[in-house]
Amino acid sequence: MQQLKIEDLYRIKGDILRSLVMEAGSNTVRITVHMGTCGISSGADKVFNVLLEEKKKSGRKDIFVTTSGCAGICNREPLITVERIGEESIKYADIDETKAKAIFHDHVLEGKIKDEWVFARGWEQKEMAFEGPISPAMEKISNIHQIPFFGIQDPIVMKNRGIINADRIEEYIAREGYFAAAKALFQMKPEEIIAEVKASGIRGRGGAGYPTGLKWAFAASSIKEE
User: Which residues of the chain are under the pLDDT cut of 70?
Assistant: First the structure.
C-alpha cells in the first residue's frame, strides 16, 4: 500500500466533506443506521436492509442510506438518524422493520416526523449543531443536549461515535483522523512531542498513574546517552 502524505489527508478530507454536503438535486436526505454490536444484536441490520429496499422502490437517487457505529445509548437500539436538507436531524429509537418503512414513507419522502418514535433532534457533537431556523414541529422535540445522559457529556475520544461509517477509513480522515500523527511525524521534533505529552497531563494506566511525558523523557535521554 502506498504511504500517504499529509497532503493526501487534506485531499481525502476535502473529497469526503464535499460529498457529504446536502444540496438540492443530488443529496437531499441522509439516513444513518447506527450499527454497533448493540444495534445489530437488536436488529439494526434488518432495519438497514429495509431502508435500502424502500429507497430502491422509491427510485430516488438523492437519498443516501449509510451506517455508523453505536450512537451512545445502547438500551434504545436500534437507532436511526434522518437528515433532510434544510432541517435539523431527527434521531429515532427502538426501531423495527415496520417502523423503518413508516419513517421512510412519512418522514423521508413527505417530511412528516413520526413523533411517537422520536428520541431527540440534533447531533451530540457540538460542532455539528444545526444553524438554520427551527420549525414549530421541531421546537416541541427535545434537543439531544437537553437529555441528561447526553447533556452532561463532551465526547473527546469518542467524538466520532454515531457519525462515521467504520468501514470507510476516508470518513475517519474527514474527521481529522491521522492528522495528529502526521503532525508528529512530519512537523515536530522528538523533544516537541515529549513536551506536548507532558503538557497534556496523560498518565499511565498502571496503579501508580505515572506521568507519560516523564516516561518518554527518561526513555529519550537514555537513548541519547547510549
Answer: 1, 224-226
Residue 150, C-beta contacts closer than 8 angstroms, at least 6 positions apart: 72, 73, 120, 124, 144
The Cα–Cα gap between 16 and 204 comes to 35
Distance between CA atoms of residues 55 and 184, nearest Å: 44
Residues contacting residue 54 through CB under 8 Å, at least 6 positions apart: 100, 101, 104, 105
Tell me the DSSP string of 47-95. Answer: HHHHHHHHHHHHT-SSEEEEEES--S-GGG-S-EEEEETTS--EEE-S-
* Neighbour order of strands in the sheet with 90-92: 63-68, 29-34, 80-84, 90-92, 118-121
How high is the pLDDT of residue 156? 86
Interatomic CA distance for residues 66 and 8, integer angstroms: 24
φ/ψ of 115, rounded to 5, equals: -55, -35
Distance CA 177, CA 165 (A): 13
CA atoms within 13 A on the CB side of 33: 26
pLDDT score recorded for residue 120: 96
Single pTM value for the model: 0.86
**Burial class of residue 33 (count of CB atoms within 10 Å of its CB; 0-12, 13-18, 19+):** buried
Q: 202: closest CA among 216, 191, 187?
A: 216
CA gap 123, 175 in Å, rounded: 15
- pLDDT at residue 42 in the model: 96
DSSP H stretches of helix in the chain: 6-20, 37-41, 44-58, 97-103, 136-139, 148-151, 169-174, 179-186, 190-200, 212-225
